[in-house]
């Protein structure tokens, strides 16, 4: 009996570790260590993947696990990346010309907190939506978090990410993507055959590996942006019945 009880708690334990990693990410961001904060988001994403996988393998899915997963994701993939972007925009704001450092432009920094709000909406929709079993509708919260969380790391290679206004626009754009009707490819393989959907997945993974080898941690925003483009391209061709 004890073994059965332990088995039931494994997925939820992993989900809680996801949440703890999100908390550590926020703490690191508040302490000014934005790289470590972003790495904690990666750790959270790994636990987020493992909790669902373990639940399916152990056949111990539950309603409480689903709700706990969403609550953890709001912290790890909503609040945590927002804190990183907020701190980064504060740094970028100081690089603006004195004439541009107005009260209004300073206030705009706070609009990035749309990210956790819309992340919560996106996760709530996902919990009651039966149409997202194969693909996602809107940008998945982990992908959004990896894009935003690693903007400071990518800024070393992509100079425009040092620009206050560019980072602001990207933050708001990706916040809107969370609740957009855009179909996004799910990277969960049911088989490894060379179907059109799997080919799109292989392209995303291959490009991601290449970019990571070149740009290291700074590759994540580029990978997620590529993921967005491939998803749009694939579903455009699908709607046109080209593939």
What keywords describe this structure?
mainly alpha, 10 helices, two-stranded antiparallel ribbon, 71% helix, 243 residues, Four Helix Bundle (Hemerythrin (Met), subunit A), 2 strands
What's the short version?
By secondary structure, the protein is mainly α.
Task: Characterise the protein shown here.
The protein is an all-alpha fold. It has one domain (2-182): Four Helix Bundle (Hemerythrin (Met), subunit A) (Up-down Bundle). It has 10 helices and 2 strands, in the order H-H-H-H-H-E-H-H-H-E-H-H. The mean pLDDT is 92.
Oligomer: single chain
Tell me what portion of residues adopts beta-strand conformation.
under 5%
Tell me the Rg in angstroms.
19 Å
Name the overall outline. Answer: globular
The biggest sheet, with number of strands, parallel, antiparallel or mixed sense and barrel status, is: 2 strands, antiparallel
Structural class: mainly alpha
For this structure, the CATH topology is: Four Helix Bundle (Hemerythrin (Met), subunit A)
CATH-derived architecture: Up-down Bundle
Average pLDDT reading: 92
What order do the helices and strands follow?
HHHHHEHHHEHH
CATH level 1 name: Mainly Alpha
**Percent range for helical residues?**
over 70%
For the record, the count of structural domains works out to 1
- The tally of helices reads 10
Widest sheet: strand order? 1-2
Stretches where pLDDT is under 50 for at least 5 consecutive residues are none
Number of strands: 2
State the distance separating the first and last CA atoms: 51 Å
